[in-house]
Amino acid sequence: MPALLGGYLSESELPNSLLLLSPPPEHNSDLFELDLEHTRKALEFKDNERFLQATRDADLSFPFAVKSFESIIGIGISESRTPKLYVMMRRVMTDAGLSTYAAKNHYKRERPFMVNNQKTCTPDQENILYKVGSFPSGHAAVGWAWSLVLVKLFPEKEKEILKRGHDFGESRVICNAHWDSDVKMGRVMGQAAVDCLWTNSDFLTDWNSVEVEVQQVLNSSSR
User: Fold this and answer.
1) Where would a tag sit more exposed on the chain, N or C end, judged by fewer CB atoms within 10 A?
2) pLDDT in tens, 11-30
3) Closest to 169 (Cα-Cα) out of 151, 149, 154, 189
4) What is the pTM of this model?
């Protein structure tokens, strides 16, 4: 992951993926066959724009990482225009991403490209991905956590925001960087992280400020 801003949750407050999740599918199981099937279909995928979107979704650097949500919510997320929302999104990314690492480090699951010997959408990152366990997907956790936060700010855009958060995780399968089960369990951890955030006093304080900031931006845009 890129340089991280400190999250809201302490190490003891982070949801523990090793305790919350069942182990990843074993290689001789029906569930792993489903993972293989999803990956085979992704490798046959010919929609160039969707593959390019998967490549863009792989980039968690700011402000680029949240660009794909901006057209849906109708405002830009930037350090200059929405500084409070910008910081909150970065800190939520940290919490959601780090929540996956207990299981990642324990299982050290091989990624699809290590099994099928096909390229990912980010070949420059493959040396790093080799060293980080595949289960569960940190990207999927982050994308889902972001969507769960944004739907509270923009409830009228709930369907579109949740679809973008879902597709953010699906991009990892299209990218040949994660198995389908990694992505599904990544969303579980994204939800778990957000559930913890709603009991965190620092997050709630920032939330109140973010709500005011977003409303001010929306009001100024409507004039």
Assistant:
1) C
2) 999 999 999 999 999 999 99
3) 189
4) 0.95
Token pair listed for 32? 């792993």
Enter the DSSP assignment of 111. Answer: P
- Whole-angstrom Cα distance, residue 39 to residue 19? 27
CB atoms within 10 A of CB 85: 26
Q: What is the torsion angle, in degrees rounded to the nearest 10, for the CA atoms of residue 104, residue 107, residue 108 and residue 111?
A: -90
pLDDT in tens, 51-94: 999 999 999 999 899 999 999 999 999 999 999 999 999 999 99
pLDDT (mean) for 122-140: 96
Neighbour-count burial for 163-194, b at 16+ CB within 10 Å, e otherwise: ebbbbbbbbbbbbbbbbbbbbbbbbbbbbbbb
**Residues annotated catalytic, as ranges:** 139, 172, 178, 182
